[in-house]
Design brief:
This protein is mainly alpha-helical. It has seven helices and three strands; from the N terminus they run H-H-H-H-E-H-H-E-E-H. It has a three-stranded antiparallel beta sheet.
């Protein structure tokens, strides 16, 4: 699937109102539908890589809630194109967002995406 600039994969998934409501219900309370499961699988697949988990942690822990890509590349023994690929996966999953400022790109977390994931994994009654 080709992603258009400025659109995330979750934007491209056809999510009916019922499926959108499913995204806020803990997985252990009610079974989720096919479309919601496909969208969630993309998000969790993006988080299923140690480099991407570290990138997410570095972005979230950085003072001010955002970080320049130049600061992220120095934290890894990986090439810049590899780091960019991992950031693209996280961005397309809707977990992070980016903003270009001159020659640098700054990344920050999408709080609503993290809250949705946390809500899905919460135990019943919490």
């Amino acid at each position: 699937m080709s992603i258009q600039p400025g659109r995330s994969t979750l934007d491209l998934l056809p999510i009916a109102p019922a499926d959108a409501a499913e995204c806020s219900i803990p997985l252990v309370r009610e079974p989720i539908g096919e479309a919601a499961a496909a969208g969630l699988a993309q998000v969790f697949k993006a988080l299923g890589d140690p480099v991407r988990l570290r990138l997410l942690s570095l972005i979230g822990a950085h003072q001010g809630g955002e970080i320049c890509v130049c600061d992220l590349t120095t934290a890894f023994d990986l090439t810049q194109p590899t780091i960019s690929h991992h950031l693209k996966v996280l961005r397309e999953a809707g977990i992070i967002t980016s903003e270009r400022r001159g020659t640098w790109v700054y990344y920050r977390l999408v709080p609503a995406a993290l809250e949705r994931m946390a809500g899905l994994l919460s135990a019943p009654g919490t």
